[in-house]
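FIELD: query
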Amino acid sequence: MKTPTYFILALMGINLLAGHARAEDATTPYKVIATTQLMGNGGIDFVTVDSNGRRVYVPRGGRTFVFDLDSHKYIGAITNCGGRGVAVDTASHHGFSSAGKIAMFDTETMQKLKDIDVGGRPDGIMLEPFTDRIYILSHEAPSLTVIDPKDGAVVGTVEVGGAVEQAQSDGQGKLFVDIEDEKKIAVADVRALKLITKYDLGATAGEPAGLGLDVKNHILFAMCAKPDVCVVMNADTGKVLATLPLGNGTDGGGFNPATMEAWSSQRDGTLTIIKESSPTSFAVEQTVVTKAGCKTSSLDTKNNQIVLICTEHLPQTATATNASALAVMTNAPAGQWRGNRGGPGNLDVLWVGR
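FIELD: result
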């Protein structure tokens, strides 16, 4: 049967509109699309997005706050489970918070399960997908402590030297780790649990904090502070391919393979978006205004959105009423809120997208 002309034209129109929408999506600038505020107390460091479980985790003041990744609403807090950052293993429903003692918790019940003793001075934390193990990144030896997420057992360590900040896995057996005080990227073998080599970021680089990895094209993006630049590097050879400017105070970043963009979050309230047009072509695409202090970030791979965190402290004249209100919110004694690092104030969680 011959297809009617009007039907063909209608299909052509739909296809043209779809193509136009895709083009618009690719060129539409990033912006802050949602902000959630929650009163609390204490300092913050990393934010962790669990794209599979659709949650956001933020350790602060001796507990870890949990938010819904889609509705942006506050879900609750995991008590006696603070620290720097969080890693989640979806298969076992276990989460881990990086601190002097690693806190292991159940992601479904949001209850702490136990503490795990590790050496060093834990900072960053991640789930390494090739081995499905949790890696604790430390500023003192041992550099990397490896944990089995099923039971929390320590299965080994890797020494790479220096103050380790953040890491990225290629999913094929290699882990790339930025070493802040050495201005280098370490390459580790996650099967043999040993250091392979180190790449020097060069004389113009600052101290690496955030790290992105384009797995397909073997490109590293090291977000460096003091000076604030992104050093783009070949992940196979360590050759520096480009150096791009960032905002002031970078402390987080990554790479989104769906958009072929790297990003860096900065303390000065900016988010730098870097476009990889080809394996040899890189440029700053946009500088997004976020909020002062939002220097760490994480990626929602489903919605291609970047989640950032920062705090807004209450005035020094905050009264006992403020402390009591905070205590009621978190089911903690009012006295617990006095003297914690960071002081009382809002925790701001920002969602940035197109």
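FIELD: remark
DSSP finds two helices and 28 strands in the chain.
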